[in-house]
Amino acid sequence: MAKYTLMKTEGRAKRAQFETVHGTIQTPVFMNVGTVGAIKGAVSTMDLKDIGTQVELSNTYHLHVRTGDKLIKEFGGLHKFMVWDRPILTDSGGFQVFSLAGLRKIKEEGVYFQSHIDGHKIFMGPEESMQIQSNLGSTIAMAFDECPSSVASREYVQKSVDRTTRWLERCKKEMARLNSLPDTVNKEQLLFGINQGAIYEDIRIAHADAISKMDLDGYAVGGLAVGETHEQMYHILDEVVPHLPQGKPTYLMGVGTPANILEGVARGIDFFDCVYPSRNGRHGHVYTNHGKMNLFNAKYEMDPRPIEEGCQCPACQHYSRAYIRHLMKAKEMLGMRLCVLHNLYFYNHMMEEIRDALDAGNFAEYKEMRLAGFAEGKINGRV
């Protein structure tokens, strides 16, 4: 089974390592999002190793509707299918209950979907989500939940959270059954529960207390960065994280910007994921120590410098801003690929610096320096 070792704390910030069947994860960590088993932008699993990726994240719902989890199981699971021997986390399909609101009906037994691809009917409940994730054989499976809207009524959110708790009990039971079967791809598959409650702190806290008693392998805070302000998100983390077990990994789902990550680490978060680095990279928006840069800006047309001086990513080691801008303007896939590689390297490298700062006991100063750099870049128009 997995082993979580808390190595150091600074305030609420945690520096830990999480030993799994697919390798040890050093936390805090950013998980690189490969929705359908690949990072968008023509980034291979060999590239992921080169840029320091520890964990890859894939999507249960999307792999189920396109290609299919049963086919992937025939290949020996997602690790073998995509040729990746490090940890993989699969989300549960629960977020699609939120994002595909126009295509689904929620019942006690689960959720009835229409496929966003061809409209065919799909049913997914806790057991189905666990079965799909078991077929994929991921290192960490997420419990099936509903992510209520941040503007949903208190009454709706309470009913939703109560149902999510009942679903979590079903997920735990089904996971134990699946892990005991002889033909299961990964009999050491781990289960993380998800805290919900929109921006109602008392509902969040009560839910955190309830799921903490279930002794799961890890705990996530879901349903943030879906419309509320950053201040509301930080407030919820301040209130909720202390109610989750400190001796288990804590995961903030779908967050976020470099500043969000620094603030999340300070509040005790171990795991992060977000589509920003790859999505923004595909549109020529790249991250630097002075904030985000838009390479389509005319001022980079003749700029011979790399995206960021001193950066050791594959793009910055070889290519100029001017050349990458030219590729993006010409709609050459290489431009998109280089921007995505740079952004993922930037995120992975920042997490490494965060871990080093926590090891050295100076995370607070590191955080302030980083946030000041982002702000200064905006003020002076450096990016």
From TrEMBL:
Keyword Zinc: yes
Catalyzed reactions per annotation: 7-aminomethyl-7-carbaguanine + guanosine(34) in tRNA = 7-aminomethyl-7-carbaguanosine(34) in tRNA + guanine
Cofactor: Zn(2+)
InterPro entries: ArchSynthase1/Queuine_TRR, TGT, TGT-like_sf, tRNA_ribo_trans-like
Binding site for substrate: D91, S92, G93, G94, F95, D145, Q196, G223
Pathway the protein contributes to: tRNA modification; tRNA-queuosine biosynthesis
Protein residues bound to Zn(2+): C311, C313, C316, H342
DNA repair keyword on record: no
One GO-annotated biological process of the protein: tRNA queuosine(34) biosynthetic process
Keywords, comma-separated and alphabetical: Glycosyltransferase, Metal-binding, Queuosine biosynthesis, Transferase, tRNA processing, Zinc
Role of this protein: Catalyzes the base-exchange of a guanine (G) residue with the queuine precursor 7-aminomethyl-7-deazaguanine (PreQ1) at position 34 (anticodon wobble position) in tRNAs with GU(N) anticodons (tRNA-Asp, -Asn, -His and -Tyr). Catalysis occurs through a double-displacement mechanism. The nucleophile active site attacks the C1' of nucleotide 34 to detach the guanine base from the RNA, forming a covalent enzyme-RNA intermediate. The proton acceptor active site deprotonates the incoming PreQ1, allowing a nucleophilic attack on the C1' of the ribose to form the product.
Protein known as: Queuine tRNA-ribosyltransferase
Biological source species: Blautia segnis
Organism classification: Bacteria, Bacillati, Bacillota, Clostridia, Lachnospirales
